[in-house]
Amino acid sequence: MKLLTKTHTSQRRLVEILRVIEESDKPVGARAISDCLCNRGYELGERAVRYNLKILDELGFTRKEGYSGRVLTTLGMRELSDALVDDRIGFVNTRIEEYMYRTGLDLERRAGEVVVNASIIHKADFEKVSRILSSVFDAGYTVSKRVRIFDEGSEISSFQIPNGCLGIVTICSITIDGMLMKRGIPVNTSYAGIVEIRDRAPQEFTDLIAYSGSSLDPMKVFMARRMTRAFDAVITGRGRVLANVREIPTAAGDRAIELLKLAREAELGGLIGISGPGEPLLGCPVSSGKIALAFYAGINAAVAAEEQGIRVKNLPISALMDYSVMDELQPG
């Protein structure tokens, strides 16, 4: 029996539960699944999750591990890989839009929820990682210098930090999108890309992936292909870094610029450039009647650490966190 025999709504619900279980490094229970689904924009209570888990158990896709929770079976992993291939097109963009809607940053108070990335490292690597992160922050290749450190055993969304490890949370550029949207500016995150840096300045996009036609997170694709040279960009002034491009209506340009000025005062930056109406931005195409804004990706600092041979598990667009509990990294 396949999930494809069920209704579209049920399909999405069951597949999302499978995804949550698959992304966890341990058996996961109904309450944790419900919380994670809520963070992704799916309002599914604990009781409803239990009902759906029973269905997945009966289908042979999940298995109960005592009182700890569920894990995926081999059949479940195969189903997750195969299910809803067509439906997954554009899924990443939908998830981004959900996170944008859930942000709540108050620039004057410097508080409220922002979108964050998480990076998991071994404790023994912290001193070296903190120096690398600080250098990337200082070079301006991220959205913000603010971070938050989580110790082993802590949870970031549904992911628990393993023993002997630390979690470092950085601010994702999707926070800027949410900030624009919440102030009445329609925004579309159109592309993720690799920006070439020469003489410490952005020159052009060498690679682009559109969010709207992708079933995978473009940032994860670029990281998996090891296409960046973020640390080189810091040390030599020549390299390649991750960036996002979004489009807004031309009429909203002045209002967006004023908002970005306020954001910089609140320690949120990372702006690469702004295009003219319908004009390409560093080689990236821009729709007619739109202007484009490009920002460095918040994950660049962690990627630079990985480039230096440090084991880093990067989780882009991981969760929401209050901006007020984050602060500048203090290198060890």
Blueprint (SSEs and pairs):
Blueprint: H1 8-23, H2 30-39, H3 46-59, E1 62-65, E2 69-72, H4 74-82, H5 85-88, H6 91-102, E3 113-122, H7 126-139, E4 146-150, E5 155-156, E6 159-160, E7 165-171, H8 174-182, E8 188-198, E9 201-210, H9 218-224, H10 230-235, E10 239-249, H11 253-265, E11 271-274, E12 290-296, H12 300-307, E13 313-322, E14 327-328
Antiparallel strand pairs: 1-2, 3-7, 3-13, 4-7, 4-14, 5-6, 8-9, 8-10, 10-12, 11-12
The CATH first-level class of the largest domain comes to Alpha Beta
Strand order within the widest beta sheet: 13-3-7-4-14
The H-level CATH homologous superfamily of the largest domain, spelled out, is: mj0159-like
Bulk shape: globular
What name does CATH use for the topology of the largest domain? Alpha-Beta Plaits
Radius of gyration: 20 Å
| Strand/helix succession | HHHEEHHHEHEEEEHEEHHEHEEHEE
**Count of helical segments?**
12
Termini distance?
Answer: 54 Å
CATH architecture annotation name of the largest domain:
2-Layer Sandwich
Strand content: 25-35%
The largest β sheet comes out as: 5 strands, antiparallel
Could you name the ranges where pLDDT drops below 50 across 5 or more consecutive residues? 1-8
Helix content: 25-40%
Domain tally: 2
Structural class by sheet pairing and helices: alpha+beta
